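User: what does the whole thing look like in 3D?
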Amino acid sequence: MNRLAHLAFPLTFALTACQVSSDPDLHQTGERPELPEQNDSLVPAMEIPTPEGWGDELPAVPEGYTVSAIAQDLKIPRQTLVLPNGDILVAEGAGGKAPKLRPKDVIAGWIKKRGKSSVKGGNRITLLRDEDGDGQTDLQTTFIEGLDAPYGLAFVDGTLYVANQGNLVSFEYTEGATSIAGSGTEVTKLPAKINHHWTKAMTASPDGSKLYVGIGSNSNVGERGMDVEEDRAVIWEIDRETGASRIFASGIRNPTALAFDPWNEQLWAVVNERDELGPQLVPDYLTSVRDGAFYGWPYSYYGQNVDPRIKPARPDLVKNAVVPDYALGSHVAALGVDFTTEGGLGGRFGEGAFVGMHGSWNRADPSGYKVVFVPFRGGRPSGEPIDLLTGFLKDGHARGRPVGVTYDEARRVLYVADDVSNTVWRIAPRGAARRASPQETT
Amino acid sequence: MDRRVTNSRSFANPLHAILLAFPVALYPAALLTDITYLNTAEIQWTNFSSWLIAGADLFAGLVLAWALLGLFFGRARHAKSRGTVYVIIIAAMFGLGVLNAFQHARDGWHSVGTLGLVLSVLCSILALIAAFIAYGTQAVVQRA
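Assistant: Here's the predicted 3D structure for the full assembly of 586 residues, as structure tokens:
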């Protein structure tokens, strides 16, 4: 048996040695990211920081800001929404039931599961209320139950819209309500076959007439066949009244959060790009979404960079692929985006977009695992992303993983859902809360 | 005329032979599905290859363990040199098979490629050579 061991070790070593390591000098954020050569190594890098508790510690914020937990013991919080009366809604759930098609799916599933919370998704929406404006939650209660992996939330004209993984439902809301019975009225079904990328991100147009829903691809790069990619890797525009839908943008691999900017009232998306082309390919991005635009997936990335893994090639589509506006870094897994209004959080965080980064698995040196701020000027990104909320990784463990981010215009604070520590974090400029709580720290 | 009873046994005992039957069948089957994928770009063929190779690897591992133990305790101890050659062939088949499983875990068109095809060919050839050794008669036991 000794001989077997002698064979096995060099083999494993040789296999992992084919992986290239990251080049720290490569500039992968901003408007023109540097893209290295493709390297789909034989054994893809899988570095999964396993969950660990926060203990007495908190995530880190820059000098002059505070962070506190306003909700804990949630069941996989993903996206949040602030209602007109200031109540905060938190969508909780875990979806996707893609069948295992290859031995690889079984093994990768086991490995990735190690990085997730052991809590079962709540399939519900929780309401958080701060009655006295001290920045602490006075009431945490289940608002809507019996949903199916709710993710996208929107509120228009007294109606709450919830994007489950398989349909879009609406609920009539009465001001001040702390619970709504029933499972809502279906506005439209959403593409739900396989649901490899199951999250249905959502936002409403500024005039409230349309809802936009992000529908992720059913594979990394078309390896389940293109038949199952009908109506996937697209953003739907849905008429709020009739439920009629059309494809607004396509080839947009996994649009995990959508928001309209307050300056030009344009639709923006954060998008997760493909894996297994190396640690620094392909950068995830933040982009304004143009009506009718094709963003390349699966045939190309960042414009005309052809991905040879998808056959037959489609040069006719690739030639029209749009280059995204702003790179966020490779494998950061951006899952949340929201814009500032009227001075935002002040200082360097006055005008721009907040981006929640869930964090990487497909590179040996973890990336993401933080909330960054992309400064804007005149409705366009201007400058490098700035770290806002960090400290999620410690000693190779993930104490939390950021998902949705929501800027609360009235209170001038930011909420961040964290689906590993099952917490909602609140970030505020120091001194903004009327009364400092013992939980708060810099 | 003198008559003797001759009793020949194969190199591998029946259980060992059954285990080896899997790589012998599955690696060449994977080679065929690989070729079909390369000809059609129809994704299901490479999915077939992945499972065929995974199954072949599993049994190749068991055969390898058996062959190593057999070198010392089984029938092969009566035929050391053939036993050693057999172990080397099985070990090479298993090693290349595992490599091929990783190759087939790549996505889309990269799941086969030149490397995948070459590995499938090598594993098929090695499996067939192993079968010739294992299923061939080994020793003639003569009894008066």
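In plain terms: Helices of chain B lie at 14-40, 43-73, 80-104, 113-135. Chain B touches chain A at residues 41-44, 47, 50-51, 54, 64-65, 68, 91, 95, 98-99, 101-111 (CB under 8 Å).
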